[in-house]
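Issue: copy button drops trailing tokens. Both records pasted manually instead:
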Amino acid sequence: MGYAARSFQTIVSGLGKKNKTNRAEVQEPMQQVDHQLVSLIYQSATDPTKWPKVPQLLARSLGTHQAIVIRSEGKEIQPDDVTTFGIDHEIRQQYLDILADDPWLLGMLDLPHCSPCFSDQFLTLRELRRLPFYQLLCAPSDVAYMGGAVVHNNDNVTYLFAGQRDEVQGIFREEELAHIRMLITHFDKARAIGHKIGALQNSVRALRRVLDKSAFGVFLINEHAAVTWCNAPGEAILRKDDGLSLRLSHLSTTSCQTNRNIDAALTNAIATSSGRGDSAGAYISVQRPSNKRPYQLTISPISKRDAWGADAFAVVFVLDPDRPPDMSLEAFQSLFGLTGAEARVARALFLGFSVQEAADRFEVSPNTIRTQLKAILRKCNVRSQSELMQLLTRAAIH
């Protein structure tokens, strides 16, 4: 039996032991309500459209005919932060007008972190009846008592939930406050999860805005090897349809062998991101029907600590050698501690030149280029030209 169900069983036991059949009949549907409410609390933490349903289930869970849920991201609660159930629209508008004078709300906001409470903590029913607040809000709604809680935290987000009921039902009992304590834990955890997800989403959006300005095409790959997002340069590459395209959301080329190489590299990268492999990635050349220089693909696994997004298991960087990003020789030297000659070779390889093409360009033998490449790999602390391209790619992006 779940935590919510066990907590509610404690409440039901207080209804009296004389009628076991009635108690069982009440318990089962209320357990279902609590499971639905807890589930909805977590959904609502990241999807605000779910909030209107929360007060309704909360009222049923607390055995009240009204409920209020407040989620505020500032120091002061605004009318738009308030979601209600069971309160007449006209009365709700009147309440929002006097929100800052609500003695229950003010009392709850002064409570310690995650404290359950009932209305008599702040003022007696006799004292409440003397206030204009009671005549305006409570009397028309036949409300006398309230039980609920407030969840504070240090990132300026406050959750407050309360159920209101009439005088006949009486004040909230200790076993009912135990039930409220159970709900507090879920509101608190949902608040923390929502904050983390919101921060991650902001990081992802910021990263993707930066990547749109990159000279590389960048493709994010999910666990099924499908493309879930690409930046603006990536979209431009796909529009050219010059050797690289999308088929059923998967990267595809005009060569069956190249497609197999890409599939294998992505499979290894995804396995590494999932903790089942140790691939450092791959470096693949894609021929183009236009006979322009081949696209250079760098495929890398993604650490789950990176802010790429929850559905990203690999990233593919695509370099068009005819539109390469520019890094100065000084940048290669200062970033990686290369000599002038080594920086010249590293930059040429980064721009898509082969060893032979670099040798022809600098009028040296291919063996000289290979010797310099070995020195570059050692200084950059990588094992292969593929890993070197990944390193240079990341350096160029940043």
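Record 2 (pasted manually too):
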Amino acid sequence: NALVARWNERTIVYEEVEDWLAGAGALHDERIFVGNAPNYYVTTGRHALTIPTDGPETLARAAREWDAYWLLLDRENRGAYRRMYDERAPEAGWQPVATFTDALGHPVYLFRLEP
């Protein structure tokens, strides 16, 4: 099925994000919000948290509480973050910093919460 990435292709973007984070000087113990936190952790060894469904303001509060200032936003998890995903629009302190491509050719955006 061309609409679903093969199992072994789903983590490729996670590996690319990790390479980018390392190049940007992010410490390995910095946490990240992603759609599939267990899979991200297994693939990269970085602690990950699942993106809350309530939107950017809630996410910013959770990020400050959990010291997780990175957000990886993909097409499947855009729900309440549609404007951030569709327009790469900064919201609630989240700034777009990098763009990747998933196994199906869809963009995946990395955001950083500015203090």
